[in-house]
Design a protein that fits this description.
The protein has about 290 residues and is an alpha+beta fold. It contains 6 helices and 20 strands. The protein has helices at about 40-45, 45-60, 90-95, 175-180, 185-190, 235-245, and strands at about 1-10, 15-20, 25-30, 60-65, 70, 80-85, 110-115, 120, 125-130, 140, 140-150, 165-170, 175, 195, 200-205, 215-220, 220-230, 255, 280-285, 285-294. The protein is globular, with a radius of gyration of 18 Å. It starts with a strand and ends with a strand. The model has no long low-confidence stretch (mean pLDDT about 95). Bound molecules: magnesium ion.
């Protein structure tokens, strides 16, 4: 099932929950007053809500695609969790760029974890405000993101899949110069509009093998990133175990699993984002996240 948060352009109602169907129209879950009005609550209570949502697909009113504006599907409780240097080829290109202020080994021995501020969240189709970056070094990072279902602390890798609700797509847009200057990644990753997410949350049951997915990023139609999720250095269970060893993961928390090789900083000279650029992150089976830079 593909769950979305959307604005209904006909009724004027905003932040509605829905199910995105194959034809592109959206089942309007706001028609059922027994369902929550916000994605985080829907994910947290999914055990009780899965059946009425499935029933709604057969009976609830539908909104045609042209009357739908998709929003970032979820606003997590915690900051957006992210993983640095989680594909070998990207770790090497990043080390080679000279922008890795951590000055550690190119390929990490343990997961590199950082977060993006919630205020960086952006909708599918929203504008990424690269012109607000005075350094002119904004870069794209297409990523598979995991959405946590049942939360907790001290989760074990062997139990991790029971805590995964589903998947979405994130573009971990980054100001490279700020990332380099301040050593810690947070500032360079957290500018407003620098975390496009969506278009949908695909429930885990629709993805029998997450390692079979591919992450593909294009800029203005030119393929820049294309790698299988099987190439992750630290897999999803390891990431859940590592983060939850410290942070209490909440239902609806999002872990962006890292970006493959092919980011702008990996080119010589670097190919940063400019106003007018369109970035598309496509994970077949999960969705395509498209944003334009202004
Ligand atoms: Mg990233």
């Amino acid at each position: 099932m593909k769950l979305v948060t959307f604005d209904n352009l006909v009724s004027g109602r905003t932040g509605c929950l829905g199910v995105l169907e194959e034809a592109g129209d959206v089942v309007d879950l706001t028609a059922d007053p027994a369902l929550p009005t916000e994605m985080r609550a829907l994910v947290a209570g999914w055990g009780a809500y899965a059946a009425p949502v499935a029933a709604a697909r057969g009976s609830a009113p539908r909104v045609t695609r042209s009357a739908v504006r998709l929003r970032a599907p979820i606003r997590p409780a915690n900051n957006i969790m992210c993983v640095g240097k989680n594909y070998v080829a990207h770790a090497r290109e990043f080390a080679g760029s000279g922008f890795d202020a951590s000055q550690r080994e190119a390929v990490p021995q343990a997961p590199v974890i950082f977060t993006k501020a919630l205020s960086s969240l952006a909708d599918p189709g929203a504008e990424v405000e690269v012109s607000a970056d005075p350094t002119g070094t904004s870069d794209y990072e297409g990523e598979l993101a995991v959405v946590i279902g049942r939360g907790g602390r001290g989760l074990r890798a062997q139990d991790a899949w029971e805590h995964v609700f589903g998947y979405t797509v994130v573009n971990d847009v980054t100001v490279r110069e700020v990332q380099r200057r301040h050593v810690q990644f947070f500032l360079g990753k957290s500018a407003a509009t620098y975390c496009p997410m969506g278009p949908a949350i695909v429930t885990r049951d629709e993805v029998p093998d997450v390692t079979a997915l591919r992450v593909r990023t294009t800029v203005n139609g030119e393929l820049r990133q294309d790698a299988p999720v099987a190439d992750l250095i630290f897999d999803v269970p390891t990431l859940v175990e590592t983060i939850s060893a410290t942070v209490r993961l909440e239902p609806g928390d999002v872990i962006a699993t890292g970006t493959p090789a092919g980011v702008g900083i990996g080119f010589d000279p670097p190919r940063y984002l400019r106003p007018g650029d369109t970035v598309e992150v496509e994970i077949p089976g999960i969705g395509t996240l498209t944003n334009t830079c202004v």
